[in-house]
Design a protein that fits this description.
The complex is a heterodimer.
Chain A (H helix, E strand, L loop, with lengths): L5 E14 L2 E14 L3 E5 L6 H8 L7 E6 L2 E2 L5 H11 E4 L11 H11 L4 H14 L15 H12 L6 E5 L7 H16 L3 E6 L2 H7 L2 E6 L2 E9 L2 E4 L1 H10 L4
Parallel strand pairs in A: 3-8, 3-9, 6-7, 7-8
Antiparallel strand pairs in A: 1-2, 1-4, 4-5, 9-10, 10-11
Chain B lengths: L1 H13 L3 H5 L2 H27 L7 E6 L16 E2 H8 L4 E7 L1 E8 L2 E10 L2 H10 L4 E4 L9 E4 L18 E4 L2 E9 L10 E5 H8 L4 E2 L1 E6 L5 H16 L8 E4 L1 H44 L1 H9 L4 H42 L9 H27 L3 H6 L1
Parallel strand pairs in B: 5-10, 7-9
Antiparallel strand pairs in B: 1-12, 1-13, 2-11, 3-12, 4-5, 4-8, 6-9, 7-10, 8-9
Helix pairs in contact in B: 1-10, 3-8, 3-10, 8-10, 8-11, 10-11
Chain lengths: 253, 404
């Protein structure tokens, strides 16, 4: 199993939302670690808290309790703009609904994250061209998102996620809006990136997809970590007990 | 870096619906009005001045004014000036000559078509010669009147043409005035003046025979010996006329107008018009600014998801703000740019029209400082209008914004 340096650590993280008079506990006492080069899946049915987990891991949101470390830096108390800077540099997002900017061409969409990092225009364009070649879309550079297929849009999103050469790619249901064949192509790209050393965190509700591609699967249920399974050869073994024990020591459940 | 936001703003604007562009009408109208007004500039003054017949700089005009206090109320009877007044004025030291002028309403029949026009009396001798000079009257066709001309007239340029501009009267033609036959011996050059282009000039004695005004006169054109004596002459005339008409200071039933005073009147009228246009332009720009606030606020709401995406891929609050700020500024800028183009075209067309009308050679005022200022101002109005929506965009929570 690949186990490089620790990239992300969630320390007893909870996220609660105030909804009128009641408090919704979207995530409670969750902890896990992501190591450099891993392919992680966050699994769970609808309402299990996986989107909340993704938002926290992706530094889109900060926890109500607990701490999140990215490259050993506590990001749980950072200001919105500091978080933006960090995620722009270190995390690449791939969304279920592609989330490309409709008014920008394929090339411009891929260039955009680099603009926010202050990269000069020439470097931006060269890098975007290189990435679009990688996802085999260099013949669609000047098309708008509305002019290409779903699978192509997701490949543009993959290229965009790689723009600032991030350490982690965060993919939220990357095949959710695609047919099986197109979904498989997208997953092959992600697998290829992982083999080349990128850390991938995939949020999915599809256990088959999770088991086919990931090294470690964090199973969420009702906002809590239900189990952790780890690839061992062609099988996945439950390593929850050990984790749960740590969890209990930390005063979780 | 700012160029990036500018390009991004332009790209977003390119994909905007007609609704966004309609909000620019306010800015567009405001800037068009201001630029056109400045473009027309002195042309407007010249055009209005010509309508008042202001051309000679050495002539004071004396006219009777006010109601006769002895007449029945509302009768509108005016104490007319007389040739005696003109003779008295002529004796003043600063005055070269005083020319009485009568302008009478006459019935003119051309090609069996009857119309009502004005005829102006032309004096005799030296006064006739000076009159042509002072009024800057020259014949385009034929010749000017001579003292010996009896049933002969000169007509204004417009009188000689029909509505489409084709000639209906030529020199040598005979037309009926108050049922009497007159020969047209000259047609005046076009002067761009409502008065002189539509007038018929007749020797004083002949017009008096036709109308019978006796020694009454409508106005007296007073030629001053030297332009420097203008103010003194005007004061002397007022003093004399008060005495002759037996009125006190402040109760004058006559008017003594110097060219400057008439020009001042024109300028004050124009100033009023300009102030009105500027008020309308300001209101337009204000409405335009509010339109931009509205369209940008809607845009932020519609593009929440886009804001969320940009934040997810690393846009900081300031960068989101800048994007919407520039977009808003560019909206104003484009409104201003189109306004400048239209305003300049209106200015050029207006001046061309005035030149055609007056036969003048005025040039439109194209003030590059004004254009630069208008462009910057339009951008600023747009940008300021966009501050609140841009701040709203920047403050969006990325997680909520991503949900759309």
């Amino acid at each position: 199993m690949k186990e490089g340096k620790e990239l992300i650590r969630l320390d007893n993280v909870s996220k609660h939302y105030q909804m009128g008079d009641s408090v919704v506990k979207a995530l409670s006492h969750v902890e896990f670690k992501v190591y450099d080069g891993e392919f992680i899946a966050i699994m769970g049915p609808s309402g299990s808290g996986k989107s909340t987990a993704m938002n926290l891991v992706g530094s889109l949101d900060v926890p109500t309790h607990g701490k999140i470390f990215l490259d050993d830096k506590d990001i749980s108390t950072l200001h919105e703009s500091e978080l933006a800077q960090i995620r722009g540099k270190k995390i690449g997002f791939i969304f279920q609904s592609f989330n490309l900017i409709p008014n920008l061409t394929v090339l411009e969409n891929v260039m955009l994250p680099m603009m926010f990092q202050g990269t000069d225009i020439e470097t931006r364009e060269n890098k975007a061209l290189e990435l679009l070649k990688l996802v085999e879309l260099d013949d669609r550079l000047h098309h708008y998102p509305g002019e290409i297929s779903g699978g192509q849009m997701q490949r543009v999103a993959i290229a965009r996620s790689l723009a600032n050469d991030p350490e982690v790619i965060l993919a939220d249901e990357p095949t959710g809006n695609l047919d099986t064949k197109t979904g498989a192509i997208v997953m092959e790209f992600l697998e290829k990136l992982n083999k080349e050393g990128k850390t991938i965190i995939m949020v999915t509700h599809d256990p088959e997809l999770a088991e086919e591609y990931s090294d470690v699967i964090y199973w969420l249920k009702d906002g809590q970590l239900d189990k952790v399974t780890k690839r061992s050869g062609k099988r996945f073994i439950d390593v929850t007990k050990k984790k749960r024990k740590t969890h209990e020591i930390n005063g979780g459940k | 870096m700012n160029t990036d936001y500018l390009i991004l703003a332009l790209k977003n604007l390119k994909h905007r619906g007609i609704r966004s562009w309609l909000t620019l009408l306010g800015i567009f109208i405001g800037v068009t009005a201001v630029v056109a007004l400045i473009g027309l500039g002195s042309g407007l003054q010249a055009a209005v001045g010509a309508q008042f017949g202001i051309s000679a700089t050495q002539v004071i005009t004396v006219q009777a004014g006010g109601l006769n206090s002895y007449g029945p109320p509302g009768s509108g009877v005016v104490d007319k000036l007389t040739t005696g007044d003109a003779d008295a004025i002529e004796k003043l030291s600063a005055v070269e000559m005083a020319i009485p002028r009568n302008i009478e309403t006459i019935r003119v029949e051309i090609d069996d078509e009857l119309s009502i026009m004005s005829a102006m009396s032309i004096p005799y001798g030296e006064k006739k010669k000076r009159g042509w000079e002072v009024l800057d009257i020259e014949a385009e066709y034929g010749r000017l009147l001579q003292d010996s001309d009896l049933k002969k007239i000169i007509i204004g340029n417009t009188v000689s043409k029909d509505e489409s501009g084709s000639s209906i009267v030529e020199t040598g033609d005979k037309i009926l005035i108050n049922e009497e036959k007159f020969e047209v011996i000259g047609i005046l050059e076009k002067k761009g003046s409502l008065i002189f282009d539509n007038i018929i000039l007749i020797n004083n004695g002949v017009l008096e025979d036709l109308i019978g005004y006796g020694d009454e006169t409508d106005m007296i054109a007073v030629v001053i010996k030297d332009a420097d004596l203008m103010d003194r002459a005007a004061e002397d005339i007022k003093k004399l006329m008060r005495k002759r008409r037996d009125v006190d200071i402040g109760e004058e039933n006559f008017e003594v107008s110097t060219p400057e005073a008439m020009l001042d009147t024109v300028n004050s009228v124009l100033g009023g018009v300009q102030a009105f246009i500027i008020i309308i332009a300001s209101i337009s720009i204000l409405v335009g600014a509010l339109g931009i606030v509205n369209t940008m606020t809607t845009s932020v709401l519609e593009r929440r998801r886009e804001i969320g995406i940009m934040k997810a891929i690393g846009a900081k609050n300031g960068q989101i703000f800048m994007q919407f700020f520039f977009e808003s500024g560019m909206l104003g800028f484009i409104g201003g740019l189109v306004g400048i183009i239209f305003g300049t075209l209106i200015g050029i067309a207006g001046i061309a029209g005035i030149n055609g009308f007056l036969g003048s050679e005025l040039t439109p005022v194209i003030d590059f400082v004004l254009i630069g200022g208008a462009l910057f101002g339009s951008f600023a109005v747009g940008a300021i209008a966009g501050i609140a929506p841009a701040m709203d965009a920047a403050k969006q929570n990325p997680v909520e914004a991503l949900r759309g």
